[in-house]
């Protein structure tokens, strides 16, 4: 490390400055929310925080997180094990199907479930829908680890006298811990920021309560105080995951190739396993797709309240894609210097910058949006109610998705190549354009695609920040489904699913990379 | 290498597209605020109705209009926070409390006397800083297959009784409902309102909005619900999907549950297009504007002189609404009480 620093070029000031600006923009919302929350004074703030309603929201949020995380973990690990380590027929096929639910935005899934069971509501409904929407977050990383796992550890456990179950629990499960914990963290963070599902199923949590405060009073202290609690919950989860992950690393030492795992024979269990996987697929994919078909037919049968206007769908789709395009490019550009810094100059400062962007993006969209409204209405009037603020929110929320891919791509572009270009007479910019850009382009493009998809289906921040006259697929879907005009919402729901569909491909393409969602 | 080339090409294309998108026309232009040459309306009124008014006004006068939609309380508070630099020229509400909030912040200009004269004398505050543009009545929607007429409550105040626990629906988070609560506060006083709200917190099923309340009653998930009249009439006139199994009960007898709420229109003092803004309000309250309201699917009551409301509606003068001054309804106090009750 030191020797490397010694001979390499000094860190470019522009890159450091750019990274610091990006980190500052990401952290700003946190500060704004905190300041706004307490500007009514500590006494009144305390009274607003310490009341039964906050307790109720805390209970609701906690029970939702505990139940859904347990269920998604169980389902995710079980499905991953069946697909990767057993003789389950059609493993490749199931692997794709288990990732597909991510292409159905959770709020579209709840709309589908309300169609099937109109009385679905409260904690039970919320747990059901969020579990079916989020279990792939556990499935993906766990399946990746299981696929690469060395069979010999399990063999040793067996040879030391453990049965197949006990050797799974003693030898395999501990190795899954980091991946499973990562997945669980993702599920929890998504649950904390979930709005659409919970509003539709009438289960109030902090996020829905903050939206309600916004409805009542625009940007006020009560809403910001709830946001502060939500921030604390997020930070708590991030810390808990770090602590639980611990410092134990699982790696192969010694020479020789890892032995590929032999699939466990399911034998008589094949049929139940197939039925289970089939049932999960029907619940997680069949219900949303079936409901969409149902509403399309109901809509063409005249059941819709307002006549469907295809021109409006096209305008909305085009507007959404354009917004997503801008957000994707801005986010990739913002992620680039940070990714470079972290890949090439790993110092405490670069780690701090990286963490700052991760923390901000783990916050719910509603918190970021509330902060940006408060900020722009007071201090940044020229951009108030413009798409600049909305794009900034998207970039803050989704920058890690771009960064993960770009960082991975940086590994394919060793600094020596840039140095060679410089030695051959290229200036720093020319070397950047001729060496670094082409080599990292695939990663940047993958990152762009992830941000693009996330932006086109974002609901909460868009609801608060959309410029006058702008509607996106998500907000158009929301306004129709809010009036319970389910047939009118169907075309937008279908468009949302189509836009998200490539996500499945992106996530399966690099199975060993931890997804940053 | 070929794959990298392709990727690079794709990236370059994307970047170009994005730049074109930034420079292209339309409402999404990056960095561009609202068009300052257009008349900007902040509307908490229904999208269809606002759109109908704006379209006709634009045709008649040639004044270009742009509309930002929101909900009463949120937009009222938003205008107050935007202060003297608010982009809004005109503010339209569904209920009066949000308008009063903006008025109390000293942000409203006086409405032209000729405009005030176009509506009935009960439909403008004495300050003349805003004008009524429509009216709506509180109703109880019920599902006759789930509850008999004899079992229905006689007053909205009855619903706080534990025997109604879990049996009534309300969109408590919405501005409409808060206007109804402000009428209860005005007629019953603070203590009784607080008790009633506690009954609401313990006993009511809370829905996202009035339509969700109506459809839950229609589906038999809850026997009765509190909402405004026009959602029901509009659904009856269109598809009947959300109301075919339901009927309406008007509380009458000056009950707080018979509250009639006034929707308002106002011109912002800070507007740089004051004249056009005044013209818009004049149009909305004129015979032509009120006829748009009365003949549309909006099903709200017209308030213009000599303009009859939709015939399907229960006549406004037979509703025996409680004697509350719509211009004194206290929005902030209601929100405080609802927060204390743990509803917000």
From TrEMBL, chain A:
GO terms for cellular component: plasma membrane. Gene3D superfamilies: MetI-like (1.10.3720.10). The chain crosses the membrane at residues 61-82, 94-114, 126-149, 179-201, 221-245, 266-296, 316-343, 355-377, 383-400, 431-454, 489-508. This is Iron ABC transporter permease. Belongs to the binding-protein-dependent transport system permease family. Its main location: membrane. GO terms for biological process: transmembrane transport. It is found in: Cell inner membrane; Cell membrane. Pfam families: BPD_transp_1. It is a multi-pass membrane protein. The keyword Cell membrane applies. Coiled coil: none annotated. Keywords: Cell inner membrane, Cell membrane, Membrane, Transmembrane, Transmembrane helix, Transport. Residues 58-239, 317-509 form the ABC transmembrane type-1 domain.
